[in-house]
Amino acid sequence: MGVWDEITVKRRLSSVNLWCVVGDFNSIRCEEERVSTSGIRCSQSDMRAFNEFIENMEVEDLPIVGRRFSWYKPNCTVRSRLDRILVSREWLLAWPGSTQMIMDRCISDHCPIKLQVSNSDWGPKPFRSLDHWFHDPSFKKFVVDTWQEMSIHGWGAYVLKEKFKILKGKLREWNYNKFQDPMSSQKRIVNMLSRLDKKEEESSLTEAEWSNRVELQNQFWEVAIRNESILAQKSRVCWLKEGDMNTKFFHLMINWRRRKNELKGLYINGVWSDEPKVVKAHVKDFFQQRFQEQPQPRPALDGVRFKVLTSEQNELLIAPFTEVEIRSAVWECGSAKCPGPDGFNFRFIKEFWGTLGGDICRFMREFHNKGRLPRGTNSAFITLIPKRDDPRCLSDYRPISLVGCMYKILSKVLANRLKRVLPSVIDERQSAFIGEEFGPKRGLRQGDPLSPFLFTVVAEGLTGLMREAVSQNSFCGVKVGSQQVPISMIQYADDTMFIGEANLQNVMATKSMMRCFEMVSGLKVNFCKSKFGAMGIDSGLAEGYAHLLNCTLLSFPFTYLGIPIGANPRKKETWRPIVIKIQKKLSAWKGKVLSMAGRACLLNSVLTSLPLLFLSFFRMPASVSKEIVSLQRNFLWGCKEDQRKICWISWDRVTLPKKMGGLGVKNITRFNMALLAKWRWSLFHQNDSLWARVLYSRYGGGTNLCAQSSSRRDSIWWRDLLMVCGGLEQDNWFERKIKWRIGSGARARFWLDNWTGPICLASVFPRLFTISEQQNHFIQDMGSWTDSSWVWQLQWRRERFEWEIQLEQQLMQQLLECSPRAEQVDSWWWLGEPSGTYTVRSAYSAITSEVVVGSNNGAPNIIWSIPAPPKVKIFAWRMMSRGLPTVDNLASRSITISDNDALCVFCKQDIETDYHLFCTCSVVDKVWKVCLSWINCPTPLPRCILEHFNFIPGPIYQNVQVEYWRTVWLVTTWTVWRTRNLCRFNDNSFCFDSLVKEILVHSWRWLSSFTKTFRYTFSQWCSNPGLCLCRLGA
């Protein structure tokens, strides 16, 4: 047993949760933690083993402050981070501000390392509107009344600003009086419940005490939901739905975010400082200098030609703002985005648009007329996001501006207008066009909706310089393919790539253009991040050119916009960074503190975020897909490296859509195909764009999306792209989902393309195709216009037989409604969407329907809309998919149980199976009869789980009644399952009356919490639940 295994075993055998492991581990976690002048690479297996040790120990590597490395070789040829402090997550919940500081060393080769807890006072916390306020019935009335009672006079912007300021103070006071400390309220309720539980152990509770306990449980539920909402909002986790009480996960995510983003201190003039006053003064000076305009004249690009707006476009930009335009801009802003200095997020603005909308529209109209903003409207918080794991100076942070809602609405409206006109003036090379205060006089704020568009306009200056350089032969670009498409520069936002011949003239021209752009725009080129690469020239000459440009030499493969350029996508090494990131995101601790519903959400969130760029560009190798699926499966079912758990339902069913009986987790291979197929679609619809012209010139074709063939000389990327559109064993799934929408008929082939239906005419009428003289003709060549009418002119190689003439008549009958339309352009139509436009979602559904054959025998889609917690819906899905660990399911997986333990815990007569436990057990059958007696329905229930679920009692007929009855059904099965587990594993005694009471309590709680129309008190529900159900919708 190795040292890692020994420590891990001790950790698991220990009952202590607060763990802190400190020392020289003699291992590193990643290559960035070691620098060697010899260039020897670190052992990947050692790093993997150390990371697995940290994962299995369920500990966290604390953020480091101070130095970057903790060990230095005496001859200074190697420096590494060998020493570290690892703490358990329970430790972080107790001391969330823990950090490890690497201090200066003396004569030792190791640096001292100190565990410290930061309690620095960085100032008062700003006001933030909280989403849980909307759950309080008095909140909306309070806001509306407060807003309408305010009487402020002045111009619109001033009135709106002052109203927000007053409302902020009122809400702060209302929140304090209404909720105070939610944690103390929760503890008080728990203490009262504990006293009732102790009393029940000695004697039975009276009806009043039992009702009091239910009321306390309801109060606890409300406080818990409120706490979960607060934690979810603070954790910034958008993919996880509330309702499953994943509070520990939210706590851990909040602490993780704080540890990652917290400014713990800075190196100021070479000295580490964590004193708040010193750090705040340094930050203010830094950004004041960065955004301060230097009083010096700038040259202008008078000799450079740019595209200009038309008069109609100019009128569009300066037209008065409309209420529809303003409202649309508000609804485009993310509801959960972090607010600015005013403290109000856009969920608040949207919820109260009826109250606030008039003042907001008045402010916008007056700004359009006068162009003035009151002081402070344009103010913003600057939040510093670390660019690296161990930030030490301000250049290691990315400043993001959090602007107030007033300015953001104005900026969003202006940005939307610019977005409509910029494509006509921006060059095709720019592909991205998809305390005391100080005012910035230069630079662009990240976080301002208008900033990306303004930067696009500024970057057009560099494009104009390149156009002039190429036209004057000062810069020689490259020409691609048979059509000699010229490329000299590619831009995506602030990432620019110059492409040209590797000679001194181009290097000098590049340097001149960048220097000129700096002088004209006031922006600076970051030469530290810039690289120079060349192919086919001497390495010494390449190094000289790089030195001339003040940048480093580029090596292949290199990363550009997150894509490894020059790497082989069919090798596992290319995908290794993605697999490692997924591994980190699907950590075992997250699976431990998340419900199964939360784990399923995280799987889709990780799949649609981390590898999305790779999946959109490269075809994933089968070995990589298998490895990622293994990570997903183990995370979903709670498996670890050394602890295998049963996967109760096949992965094929898990990855089915919910409407087909699956869990809705995306199949990564099918998702990859849907993303890649979009290239083929875009290749046709954007055929005039630069990237499409390059591909046409390099690979040819493009007339037919599916008929394009490849050669061995083509790139791996292009061959994989063509293969994907055949995809499922080369059966051309893509071709069956598209057809031509005929215009003039100049681009679609009469016989070989789909334009009359999902199958081409050559397949529908193979005999006629064989004898046709126009087999490869386009539609426009198959007839002519006569007096504004289209006449088909089909030509045959020989005289037709009688039965062939009948086929021709059938063909002509089919063509009656498919005549060309003059002066219109042929276009592809995607059959998976009503709009005819390709979407990844519809393509994924199409591929899934191609793969899945047979009827759906799993859980019905309706279970996901039942008013219930997400984890209970997952339980229902597992139950209906035969994925619960019942005795018969355990036996089918070769897990033997004694005869006595195999019996049903309720009736003690039959072997436990899922259908027996929930349907045929005599005890559970009595429970169902009690539920049916509430609505006076003595009808016997079906014996199959799916039929049992679909059975609707006679008195229930309204849609809302059916929905609420299914909630009662789900509560009953969930309570039976929980009681079964308590009896089987905790040796609890079974009480029939307690089980029925628990069903009453949970059903009322779920209906009250997860629906809006259920308004009955608990006493009303308990006295006559059937009457409450039957009155709904009546």
From TrEMBL:
CDD domains assigned: RT_nLTR_like (cd01650)
Span of domain Reverse transcriptase zinc-binding: 838-928
Pfam families documented for this protein: RVT_1, zf-RVT
Residue ranges of domain Reverse transcriptase in the record: 440-564
Record Gene3D superfamilies: Endonuclease/exonuclease/phosphatase
Membrane spanning residue stretches: none
Name of the molecule in the record: Ribonuclease H protein At1g65750 family
Originating species: Cajanus cajan
